[in-house]
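Write out the bound-state structure for nicotinamide-adenine-dinucleotide.
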Amino acid sequence: MIQSENFELPEPISDLNVLVMGAGLMGHSIAGVFAGAGASVTVHDVDPRALEAVPEKLGKQLVTVGADPAAANRVRLAATLEAVAPGIHLVIEAVAEVLDVKQELFARLGTLLPHAVLATNTSVFKIGEVARHTSHPERVLGTHWWNPPHLIPLVEVVHGDSTNPAVADSVARLLGSVGKVPVHVRKDTPGFIGNRLQHGLRRCRSSKPEYATRRRSTSWSATALGCDCRSWDRWKMPTMWGWT
Ligand SMILES: NC(=O)c1ccc[n+]([C@@H]2O[C@H](COP(=O)([O-])OP(=O)(O)OC[C@H]3O[C@@H](n4cnc5c(N)ncnc54)[C@H](O)[C@@H]3O)[C@@H](O)[C@H]2O)c1
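---
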C-alpha cells in the first residue's frame, strides 16, 4: 500500500518504466512524451493495427518536437497485459472512454502491477469510479492530457477521494520534468477544470456574442486554456459555436 507522505517515482527518468494503455490518438502521443524524455516505455493495445502504427507515429512526433526519433524504436509494444514486463512504475491509461472497460482494466492492473501508480486520462469519469474495483485506490489518479499531448503543456492532475496526495505530487513533479505544466485538481468532479472553463466560455459566447465573434477570439480562448485551436478545428467546435 502506498500511503507514505514521501512517495517518489524513480529518478532520474531513465530509471522510470512507464506503461501506456491504448495506442490511439492520445496514448501514442503520451508514450512519445515519456520516450523522448528518456523513460523506458511500453505501449499496450488490444488492436494489433494500432500497436503496429506506433513506431512510425512516434518517429514523426519526436522529430516534430526536436527529440531524437531513435527513441521511437526503444518503445516496447505489448499485445497483451500479461506480456508487459514487471517493474512498471507508472501506468497511463488512454483506452476508449467506456467506464466498464476502464474499471475492468484498473482491477486487473491492481493485481498485475501491485506497486505501480495508475493514472487515467478520462475526460469525464470521476477518478473514484474508475478506481472502484481496484485493490489500491490510493495510487489511482487522473492525468488529463490535452490533444495533442506532445504539444499542449497543460495536464490536469486529478485527485480521487482516495488518492494519496504524495502520489499525485510525485506524478506532477514528473510531468513538470518532461516539459508539461501540471495543474492539481483536488476535487473529484467530472469535467475537472479545463473542460468546465471551455463550457463556461461557450455559455458566455452564447449569451454575449460580442465577446467572441472572430477566429482570433477562438485562438485567444484556446491559448488561455492551454489548448490549441487545431484540435478545436478538428472537432469543428468553432463552427458549432459560430466562431468562424
Ligand atoms: N481525443 C481527445 O482529444 C482526448 C482528450 C483528452 C482525453 N481523452 C481521453 O483519452 C482516452 C483515449 O482517447 P483517444 O482519443 O486516444 O481514443 P482512441 O479511440 O483514439 O484510442 C483508444 C485506444 O484504446 C484501445 N483500447 C480499447 N479498449 C482497450 C483495452 N481494454 N485495452 C487496451 N487498449 C484498448 C483501442 O484499440 C484504441 O487504440 C479517453 O478516455 C478519452 O476520453 C481524449
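---
The mean pLDDT is 87.
The chain has ten helices and eight strands.
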